[in-house]
Write a structure and sequence with these properties.
With about 675 residues, the protein is α+β, with helices and mostly antiparallel strands. The protein has five domains: about 190 residues, no CATH class; about 60 residues; about 80 residues, Immunoglobulin-like (Sandwich), CATH 2.60.40; about 80 residues, no CATH class; about 150 residues, no CATH class. The protein has 15 helices and 39 strands. Strand 13 and strand 14 form a beta hairpin. The protein is elongated and about 135 Å long.
């Protein structure tokens, strides 16, 4: 606890300035100037809501927002002087061990001084020094983040003021800034601005103590580590979150000390999917197409993580498969693995062996009709491996012959008078059948087409061979002319006036220059920019690259959820995350798991981000944004604007819209 365990007393006086309507507030006395004294203020505003006579003392209580104590403010109006009063303040630290009688005595001593024209300093000091006993547990009060307005509790009912001194910590009391504790006959309420809580049930309270937790988890309550006891009301609960690096947080609502425990089943460890990699056993290279899936793990909500139960870590079963490799299941121990470890699995290439039977030309090989060819591959062969041939069925392994036959395309086959075979003009080959298999046989090179033969079935072809040559020559001339026209059009429209820009300078030239569109679509150049600019990035530079469009606005707008989506859907994801700064931002985005409100740089001229200062930002203080629909639309408009006339203006407008909306999207 930060507050010293001692009572604080203050006397204040509020009076009118002679001849003026102004009210002056003056602290008359403070027993010390501890942290508690900062709450003493002009509480005269309460008289706008209630009315009492000059002989009555109005009492109000207030619980400090840090949960370390409560105040009793006693106010007595000054006769004949409207809006003037004297008030005593008494601060009771939650860590002090005080009885009902002790509290009553201290308040009465303080109130006695506001009835006198001169107060006794010694008497006030004596009562403070009389009570110094520290509560063994030194608990704090569990106070809500927001307290609102005034409330009233009648002390003439079942619980009088003395009774309440023994159970001052009540749910309704901590919900309001001030709670008036008085006999209802002693005051008049003005209007409905004061809430009457007289009928609310008075309950007891108990203490929740922090204790050592198994499995290395650390308890958090509110914004800090739960390190000191907290008093809660019966029936209420204390929200506690148990945290451990590499594990999902465990949230519990603690109603009693018995709830302050976690079990092994509640411990969930998570790993990034990118940590799991498959390696080729022969080349030692990563297999990017591998599918890796644990048997007893669940995906995180953003699909970037695998979540394991603590009970499954020692013998985690991982299934790995990839085309061309032998699928396998691996058993690994993940208990000591962290988010920085690579989890690799070695895969052996598959061994497939096929025998294919090809037909032979019997005029060349007279003593054999077929030949066998064996193909060994790590990939499954599903069709004929030879172009121009078809397989008799789906190829099978294990020394089984797979028959092949040549594919006939757009050919007219008719009966032939030669050797009982089939002839067709198909690239100088004849189709023949030998031993039940088709094969290709060259046609006699000296053979000339006989246009008068019965074999010629094209009725549209003139039987005069000279006319055929003339027709072919005419077609060739037309084709050449058409190509000339197309060539001139391409030159005139796309080449003649196309400027070339020197990379990095904007000057025209020839050697060593690239077109802007070639530059923007070149990932190697974009990746080179990211690697060279690890300290500072500029929006105008990044928007030149298609693969980086919109990324600056996402980072500048603290849209961490959108950044995760951008990276995970990027075709060069691994390249980007190989750069420390972008990897660090990715891990930070996973940790934050939300889009935030605000921008890093709202300048329109020098739009840049310096990573060193960017990461110093306390992102937890930024407000979360719930809906990112408008942001995504604006980001797309901004990115598209760079590729159109006036695109730079559109891109800036999209960025401005992002800064105005800064909406969120989706944690482990």
């Amino acid at each position: 606890m930060t507050t010293e365990a001692k009572i604080g007393i203050g006397i204040v006086h509020c009076q009118s300035t002679p001849g003026s309507t102004d009210i002056g507030f003056t602290p008359v006395y403070k027993s010390d100037y501890g942290k508690w004294s900062s709450i003493i203020d002009d509480t005269g505003a309460v008289f706008r809501h209630v009315k009492i006579d000059y002989e009555t003392i109005l009492r109000m209580i207030h619980f400090s927002k840090d949960g370390e104590g409560w105040y009793m403010c006693s106010m007595k109006p000054i006769p004949g002087r409207d809006e003037e009063y004297r008030a005593s303040w008494v601060y009771f630290p939650s860590s002090l061990d005080l009885s009902q009688k002790d509290i009553k005595t201290i308040i009465e001593v303080a109130e006695s001084q506001i009835k006198e024209k001169e107060f006794d300093t010694n008497k006030l000091q004596e009562v403070i020094l009389s009570y110094q006993k520290i509560n063994e547990d030194s608990p704090r009060y569990n106070i809500p983040a927001t307290q609102n307005g005034y409330a009233f509790r009648d002390t003439s009912g079942a619980f009088n003021l003395y009774d309440l001194y023994g159970c001052m910590y009540q749910k309704e009391f901590v919900q309001y800034e001030w709670v008036i504790l008085m006999d209802k006959t002693a005051l008049t309420l003005k209007g409905n601005s004061v809430i009457d809580i007289s009928e609310k049930k008075i309950v007891e309270s108990h203490i929740i103590k922090p204790q050592p937790i198994d499995f290395g988890f650390v308890p958090y309550c509110g914004n800090g580590v739960f390190s000191s006891p907290i008093r809660i009301m019966d029936g209420e609960y204390l929200p506690v979150e148990f945290r451990k690096d590499g594990y999902l947080p465990i949230s519990k609502n603690i109603k009693s000390q018995n709830d302050y425990v976690i079990s092994l089943n509640e411990c969930k460890k998570y790993f990034k999917k990118t940590q799991f990699v498959a390696i080729d056993a022969q080349t030692n290279k990563r297999i990017s197409s591998a599918i890796i899936k644990p048997c007893n793990a669940k995906e995180g909500t953003n699909r970037a993580y695998w979540i394991f139960s603590e009970l499954d870590l020692e013998n985690a079963k991982i299934n790995v498969m990839a085309e061309g490799y032998t699928a396998n299941s691996y058993i690994i121990d993940l208990r000591e693995k962290t988010l920085n470890d690579e989890l690799s699995f070695t895969m052996e290439p598959e061994a497939h062996e096929y025998v294919f039977v090809l037909p032979l030309n019997s005029s060349v090989v007279k003593d054999c009709n077929t030949a066998e060819i064996t193909i060994r591959s790590q990939y499954v062969i599903k069709d004929s491996p030879f172009e121009g041939y078809r397989c008799s069925g789906t190829p099978r392994e294990g020394g089984i012959p797979n028959r092949l036959s040549i594919i006939q395309q757009n050919q007219t086959v008719s009966s032939s008078k030669n050797n009982g075979g089939h002839r067709s003009n198909n690239g100088g080959y004849e189709q023949r059948t030998a031993g039940g298999y088709r094969y290709a046989e060259p046609v006699n090179k000296h053979h000339k087409p006989d246009y008068d033969s019965e074999e010629h079935n094209d009725d549209t072809e003139p039987k005069n061979p000279i006319w055929g040559y003339v027709k072919k020559a005419g077609i060739a001339i037309v084709a050449v002319g058409l190509l000339c026209v197309i060539g001139y059009f391409v030159y005139d429209e796309f080449i003649k006036d196309e400027p070339y820009i020197e990379v990095g300078t904007g000057n025209s030239g020839n050697n060593g220059y690239e077109k802007p569109d070639e530059l923007s679509n070149n990932w190697d150049t974009a990746f080179g920019y990211l690697k060279e600019h690890t300290n500072q990035i500029c929006k105008n530079d990044m928007e030149c690259f298609d693969d980086l469009k919109g990324l600056y606005d996402i980072v500048n707008g603290y849209r961490f959820k959108d950044y995760i989506k951008f990276i995970d859907s990027h075709r060069h994801r691994d390249d980007i995350l190989s750069i420390d700064e972008w990897k660090r931002l990715y891990d930070k985005s996973i940790e934050i798991d939300s889009n935030k409100k605000g921008v890093y740089n709202n300048e329109t001229v020098e739009q840049s981000i310096t990573f060193e200062t960017y990461f110093k930002k306390d992102f937890s203080k930024l407000e979360n944004i719930d809906d990112n629909q408008n942001v995504n639309q604006n980001a797309q408009q901004g990115a598209q604007g760079h590729g159109q006339q006036g695109g730079h203006t559109n891109g800036q407008q999209g960025n401005q819209n992002n800064q105005q909306n800064n909406l969120q999207d989706n944690n482990v």
